[in-house]
Write a structure and sequence with these properties.
This protein is about 5% helix and about 50% strand. The relative contact order is 0.12. The radius of gyration is 22 Å and the shape is flat. Strand 20 and strand 21 form a beta hairpin. By secondary structure, the protein is mainly beta. The strands form 3 sheets. Strands 2-3-4-5-6-7-8-10 form an 8-stranded antiparallel beta barrel.
């Protein structure tokens, strides 16, 4: 099954912010955890002496203080309740200045419920609350449920094993970009289903985790390059919202992602600042192409590729800076 691995790109959040280079010193050794919030990588450090939590991301560091929570651990930015991090086990939820990021997962962890599928023959598997539900190959109407145990849990992925009615099922999941062999849709995980020794390959996870969490800065607009020091960008936000910069103006709108890998933008609206004529022309071109985008994928260098039916491509890379 053809697949592509996403290159590791530095990513990651601002309440009380200091330089990421200035690491706190002291006798206590802080506990450090890494999370991926979609395409935003963060490093969380708990200092037992100060009780503050530091979150490093991109080129910033955020300091948070403990707050009351019904479960798990909640930390908020002093003076900014809209910037917060809630953690429980290997998962976390992050908001920065009111913007909610995808569920944050420690290396190898999976967003639950987790679904995977493969082709030739078709199969489907879903893991939730200790149960594995499988649509077996060659038997689309035969669905079996197996109580499973997580046998492997490391930074590369997870393995679930169960047995019922003489059928031993193993679902192995790796954190690696995967492309469906029929639809071409990309997924954040490779998956392997083993039934009584028979192995079936496939993909799994939420495809939107490949796009959300990053600010994608345009590197090339339909093979015409971009004006020096100009900036066009795309952010995929919660609730199917999109925002960014168009060269001169900020814009916002909606996006729709289909199960077959299609992506479209709609209701794009921009502010009305005036800029140099060349920038305005580039912005008009950008909005025109964005309005005709019909698909999206991740390239071999980790770049975002937005494509139109006419073959035009917007190529963008993840920003290494935190932009309000």
């Amino acid at each position: 099954m053809p697949s592509i691995r996403i290159l590791a790109l530095p990513l990651a959040v601002a309440g009380l912010v200091v330089s990421a280079c200035s690491t706190p010193s002291g006798p206590a050794s802080p506990m450090v955890n890494d999370y991926a919030c979609g395409q935003l990588d963060i490093q969380v450090s708990a200092d037992p002496d100060s009780r503050l939590l530091s979150v490093d991301y991109l080129d910033k560091r955020m300091l948070l203080k403990p707050a009351e929570a019904a479960s798990g651990a909640l930390y908020v930015a002093p003076g900014d309740d809209s910037t917060r991090l809630w953690t429980k086990g290997e998962r976390a939820m992050l908001s920065i200045r009111g913007q909610k990021y995808p569920e944050c997962l420690q290396p190898g962890a999976l967003a639950m419920p987790f679904s995977a599928q493969g082709n030739e023959p078709f199969w489907r598997a879903k893991v939730q609350a200790g149960m594995l539900e499988v649509t077996r190959p060659y038997e689309p109407d035969a669905i079996m449920s197996v109580l499973v145990e997580q046998k492997t849990a490391d930074r590369h992925g997870r393995e679930f094993v169960g047995e019922a009615d003489g059928m031993r099922a193993v679902l192995t999941v790796a954190t690696q970009l995967c492309q469906d062999t029929m639809s071409g849709v990309q997924f954040p995980n490779q998956a392997r289903l083993t039934l009584n020794g028979e192995v079936y390959e496939g993909c799994g996870g939420d495809p939107l985790r490949l796009f959300r969490g990053a600010e994608w800065v345009v590197d090339d607009l339909a093979e015409q390059g971009i004006i020096d020091r100009s900036r066009m960008s795309v952010r995929f936000l919660e609730n199917n919202r999109v925002s960014g910069r168009g060269s001169c103006n900020r814009y916002s709108g909606r996006y729709e992602f289909s199960g077959e890998g299609g992506l479209t933008f709609s209701r794009l609206a921009a502010t009305r600042m005036a800029c140099a004529p060349a920038l305005m022309m580039q912005e008009d071109r950008f909005f025109d192409v964005m309005g005709r985008v019909s698909g999206a994928r991740i390239g071999q260098a980790g770049e975002l590729l937005l494509t139109t039916p006419q073959g035009e491509v917007i190529k963008a890379f993840q920003s290494g800076h935190d932009s309000p």
